[in-house]
Structures are given as structure tokens and as C-alpha cells.
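Before we proceed, please read the two lines closing this message. Let me know whether the C-alpha cells fit the sequence:

…
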Amino acid sequence: MKHILGVLVENNPGVLYKVAGLFSRRGFNIDSLAVGVTEDPDVSRMTIVVDGDSYIVEQVTKQLNKLVEVIKVSDISNDSVVRELALIKVRANSNVRNEIIQIVNIFRANVVDIAKDSLTIEITGDGEKISALEDMLKDFGIKEVVRTGIIAVERGNKVIKYTNLQEEEE
């Protein structure tokens, strides 16, 4: 089973290397990893997808919490909004361009670049939606695919947030 971990870390050089190294040393595989700065410029958020049972997720969580730069780890697998972004460059001469655009519109994707013999398409959604669009475009000739990996946030009012104790006292 795939588990999604939301991990808050200090926004410092080398933190990603330490987290990835931890997984490597322990023999855990990362299915997806996305990192970006949060609303606090000193804190980054990692969304890590791990394949394994609850024991493996528990071990990963314990190991992550041992790293000094890790602020908070949460398993957000159950009730989350999950998205992925992909850019797909497909062969598209003038004879098939309209057909490709119709397919793109059905998937609520966008054409973000047009060249003489290609289109670049941007699509956001779950992995199955992105894969389905890829399958539809294969016959035209896919030149390149770039996928971000999964990002996720818990539904409703739940947040993974670090509040500095000094801020809380003020």
C-alpha cells in the first residue's frame, strides 16, 4: 500500500540529501518526492510517497524524526487532496493538431507551447488521469514527458504546521 508522508523540514542546504540518504541506507524506496518552501521561508515541506505496510511507515517516520532538520512528520494517506503535474510534448503537425487539442480539452488540460511540429501540454490531476492522457497521445508520438510527483494536503481544516513556541507566547 502506498503511504503519503507530509514532512516539514528546515529550509537549509543538504536537508534533501540527508532525507534521501536515510531512505537509501535503510533500504526503503521512495515512489515520489516533491519539495517546496512553505508560507514560512525557513521551512520546506516534503511530500514523500512510500510503498509499504504500516510497519515500514512507522519505521520511516521514526528514522525521519531522528534527523535534527526534521520538524514534523505526518502520514496523510487517508483523507487528502492529491495532485500531480505533468508536461507532455507530443508530435503535432498541422494535420493532427486539432484532434490533439480536442483530446486535451476533454482532459481539462492546457496547451502551453506550440511549435511547428509539436505541442506541449500541461495536465494536473491524479496519476491515473495523467496516465490516461499519455495513453491517448501515444499514437501521435510522445517526444517527452515530465512529471512532478505527488503533492498532497489533508482535507478540511487539518494542517501540518510548525508554530514556533516564541510566536505562541507573544
Observations:
- The domain at 82-151 is CATH 3.30.70.1150 (Alpha-Beta Plaits).
- Helices lie at 15-26, 54-66, 97-106, 127-137, 165-169.
